[in-house]
Amino acid sequence: MSIKRVYITHTVGCSGWDLDRIFKDTVFRKAIHTHQKYEHGVKMLDWDFKKPDPERHLEMAKRYDFEVVMAPDIWTAEDKNKTLKIADKLENYVDRVVIPIHYYDDDLAGYELAYPNARKFNPKAGWRLGLISEFKDYVTHILGGSPHSQLKLAKYFPNLKSLDGNLVFWCAVHYGKYWDWGWKKPEEPLKNEEIFRISIQNMMRALKEADADE
After folding, report:
1. Helices (H), the chain
2. Spatial contact of 12 and 20, defined as CB atoms under 8 Å apart
3. Which of 30, 57, 100, 172 is within CB 3.0–4.6 Å of 114 for a Cys-Cys bond?
């Protein structure tokens, strides 16, 4: 398994946690979206699909040293050309540009793609989701969903490099649950930050075990 990074967007600027301590010696990295403030150590720029702002997104990609930048989502065939123009511009500033796909056609061959795993963002019926063989080599990022579903899905994508880890943050903050091949409540009261840290350590163990099984 080639997963080298897990990016978490929503922790930065809103958790108040010591993320550098939590992420130390792990593959986890801080991320922000278009409208969040940059801070030291952020490695991914996520596209804010709720408030799209291509000019700000491009400016942030140009200004800061990101490992990866997400291009706008492609929801339909009509979105494709506009997204590819932005993706091509982003490639002038960052080595790795990834396009989240909810639609696919052959014009996307050769681009790095993000596969939408979260239930509410799964591709609509009618697009060619069933033919994963068409685009499996280009998927380098899994977007959304639980860690256990992501790790099961990872085997279909031979060039996978990274995952979206936002759900472990969401479940720690909103439900007080950590991840351990499922969502669990601590036996004794813990702060949400500690619950989140447990999820990070469990995911690291799961990634190492997956590597050992290959």
Report:
1. 19-23, 54-63, 80-90, 147-153, 166-175, 192-213
2. no
3. 100
Longest dimension (CA), the chain: 52
Query: 């050769």: which residue's tokens?
Result: 110
Q: Describe the crossing of helices 54-63 and 80-90 by its angle, rounded to 10 degrees.
A: 20
DSSP state of 74: B
Token pair belonging to 92: 């002038």
DSSP bridge partners of 6: 28, 163
Residue 146's identity, in one-letter code, is S
Residue indicated by tokens 């997104």: 57
Tally of domains within the chain? 1
Structure tokens at 6: 């897990």
User: pLDDT tens across 48-79, in order?
Assistant: 988 999 999 999 999 999 999 999 999 889 99
Query: Residue 82 is part of a domain; what is its CATH number?
Result: 3.20.20
The answer, as to whether pTM is greater than 0.85, is: yes
Q: Give the rounded distance of the alpha carbon of 204 from its chain centre.
A: 16
Q: Which pair of tokens denotes residue 26?
A: 């792990």
pLDDT digits (tens, 9 = 90+) for 4-56: 999 998 777 667 888 999 999 999 999 999 999 998 899 999 999 889 999 99
Residues 58, 32 contacting (CB under 8 angstroms): no
| 3-state DSSP assignment of residue 104 | coil
Domain that holds residue 30: 5-213
